[in-house]
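Chain X:
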Amino acid sequence: MNHTGTHILNFALREVLGKDVKQKGSLVAPEKLRFDFSFKASLTEKDIERVQQISYKYIQDDQQVFVSDVALEKARQIEGVQAVSGETYPDPTRVVSIGVSVDTLVDNVSNKDWWNYSIEFCGGTHVQAELATTAVSILDRRALSRRLEEITKEMLKEQKASLKVQVDAALTLVETAIKQDPASSSFVVQLPGTDCSAKVISEAIKQVSSRHHDKSTYFIGLDGPAGRVAHGCFVSQGHVEWPGGHRVGSACCEDCGRESRWKGGHQYGERNGDDQSRGWDRGCKVVPRTSENLISGNDLPLD
């Protein structure tokens, strides 16, 4: 019912605002519908009233809904037919017409009268036979930019929540390692999963450097979506003061990543593409030895 309502609303908007109205998308839910469109100006209260009146009249006329597959080239020739901008349609494509049969449209594709009907390319589900919809009421209107802003805010909230879960998991691993070996002053933490981004590493290092500033910690994880190994190292102040201590972060990055950057006691690096496995293996195997050499004050071999 609501899907058919989007077609009626599209027709009514075109009647009120003209042919420059372009559909950009829609949402069909059991209790409501949303119709996204572009136009050079905002809807006025008078425009909204007219759209509702035209929609209501279309429904009250009890027009029949016709659905049929038509060869795409032929379907595009139908006068007044509507399609979503940028959408790719199959061949043949499904034509939904309210008030005039699809066969009649195809028999005379250039008839200007077809602009007086709702005719669209659509693969969705619609009411059968006569319209079962009873009314159309516009409850809310918002600029697309505002709605996109709201969606972006929701996505950021989800990303922050996901980041917190991953960072908390990393910190739990650190706390567990410290409890198991409280005398150690350096740890290597392999993060679980395949979606460990550089952001997770960065936040985990910030937390560890704040909570355990006397523990040098190296994090390594797989960033599957980005196709790379992500890793980072926090070097405690005590270790930085050792001869060669400053090199531990660089050694970690040279062991398993092409790119690295040093800031204070923090070192970050990434290894991309085909070198993932090499980066992972070397990072997990070489870094513990690098850390041991650092603590003992020995030189730091990179091989």
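Chain Y:
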Amino acid sequence: MNKNKLYNRIIFKNKFKEITLAEHGIILNKRGKIKKEILFSELDQIYISVNKMKLRDKFLIILVLLFSGLFSHLYLQVDIPIILAYLTVIIFILKMNKFRNYTLQIRLKNGTAFEKKIAVKLKQEAIDLINEIRKEIYDSKINNGTKILIEICA
């Protein structure tokens, strides 16, 4: 594989706390007072990804719950804990299919990635912000295109 292609696949992840829309780009507020300004021309992608619970984590939790019920039944000789353990497993299976968290991801053209975890309640605000940023990117591309066209015609 070519080194340039390999370099483009390497993604460095940075976390940020707040994103602000500026005139010529976006401003990411990292931990403390560190701010990073990113121009619209440097942005490659901006999107929200859905993160669900991994299958192995689900399987591990279900196994722990089942073994705790089996242990209580075999060693404690009590039927109520086993019923409660199996009931807990059933409730957990129903709840875990609904478990989601969201991540706002910003990728730059140089391969750097920025991430911010988003609560379910704030998902719609993040979508609105992404749409505003994409609109500004589109407007800046059109303005740059018309400037180049005017310079060529002049």
